[in-house]
Amino acid sequence: MAHNKTKFGSLRRALLASTLAVVAMGGAAPAFAADVTLLNVSYDVARELYKEINPLFEAQYQKQTGKTIEIKQSHGGSSKQARAVADGLEGAVVTMNQANDIDMLADRGLVVADWAKKFPNNASPSYSTMVYLVRKGNPQGIKDWTDLAKPGVKVVIPNPKTAGNGRYTYLAAWGSVLQKGGTDAQARELVTKIFKNVPVLDGGGRAATTTFTQRQIGDVLVTFENEVNLVRAEFGDSFDIVYPASSILAENPVAVVDKVVDKRGIRKEATAYLNFLYSEAGQEVIAKHYLRPRSPAVAKKYAAQFKPIKLFTVDEVFGGWRAAQKRHFDDGGEFDRIYATK
Q1: pLDDT at 32
Q2: How is the beta sheet containing 292-293 ordered, strand by strand?
Q3: How does DSSP assign 67-118, residue by residue?
Q4: pTM of the model as a whole
Q5: Residue 237 β-bridge partners
Q6: According to a count of CB atoms within 10 Å of the terminal CB, is the N or C end of the chain lower?
Q7: What secondary structure does DSSP assign to 271-296, as a single string?
Q8: Cα–Cα dist 98/79, whole Å
Q9: Region 78-103: what's the mean pLDDT?
Q10: Digit-coded pLDDT (tens) for 133-163
Q11: Using an 8 Å Cβ cutoff, are 194 and 149 in contact?
């Protein structure tokens, strides 16, 4: 019995020593605690972009200031993410794909009203547009927006109520009619037919990509140019990219969440992070991820990967994001009425 007790005691001590070793190696607590931690609340398909940008900024910031900084990420549908910040998610910065999500935060007093003037290019360090990803060989012969309305064509688009690329797709299709001299009634008819062809309305852009590429649903995915290029890079020859005759300018605006950074005393760090996106190093990563950069030098370097396309803006065609949101995407707006007839 004594022998068994001794044996059990030795085993218990060995297990305790093992547990303490795991704790010492970081099993129960982080081995590194940064001087400053920031949360970047971003849209769905920007995950890979910031996964590469963040460590570059962290290294530069430490070299310049001697302080360590850690950037954490939160991703989802752009509008869903903005609402999360409005509801209390303490993002120090927001990096979105449409201005009206940041306008909503400004209306709630979380972001200053003139946020778009705080950084260059309407506080948008990059931009994109909406293009098509089709199955290899483009069996449905999809070339332009009207082809998405043809009977039998299955179109994958995320929900315009929650996802920025869904909203841009809707506006790009509507605007394509007006740009050719068509009427609002004709634009409404086209968009109605397109959404009748949508088999599933995912909540965000990445979910829509998964539906198309992995679940093998749909003939065409409409999403940001950078997203379709990333899919091509990952899946190789399984898909083709099609550029419509015209599309919409999709800016990627950023802002400091003033209420959060002032509360936590981290305005300087948050501002430095967003300024890094405009640096040559940040612009290089942006271009590598198929977002169109603002830097003329970087844009020239990567010109071959960005096909020229006629772009129109939300301001030109819809009178700005606030007007577009109110008419098309607020509850009871054009989209709700169109989708109710699906």
Answers
A1: 62
A2: 250-251, 126-128, 292-293
A3: --EEEEEEEE-HHHHHHHHHTT---SEEE-S-HHHHHHHHHTTSS-TTGGGS
A4: 0.84
A5: none
A6: N
A7: HHHHHHTTSHHHHHHHHHTTPEES-H
A8: 9
A9: 95
A10: 999 999 999 999 999 999 999 999 999 998 8
A11: yes
d(CA 101, CA 16): 51
Q: For residue 312, list its beta bridge partners.
A: 248
Tokens 């996802």 correspond to what residue? 163
Query: What distance lies between CA 180 and its chain's CA centroid?
Result: 29
Q: What DSSP assignment string belongs to 33-68? A: --SEEEEEEEEGGGHHHHHHHHHHHHHHHHHHHS--
What's the chain's length in residues?
Answer: 342
Please give the structure tokens belonging to residue 284.
């290089």
243-257: pLDDT as tens digits:
999 999 999 999 999
| Residue type, position 214, single letter | Q
Element counts in the chain: helices (H) and strands (E): 16, 13
Please state whether beta strands 36-43 and 93-95 pair in parallel, antiparallel, or not at all (unpaired): parallel
**Residue among 139, 146, 143, 226 at smallest CA distance from 189:** 146
Sheet with 130-135, edge to edge strand ranges = 155-156, 220-224, 130-135, 239-242
Residue 200 to residue 195: CA distance in whole angstroms: 10
What does the block give as tokens for 285? 């990563």
CA nearest to 76, candidates 162, 198, 169, 200: 162
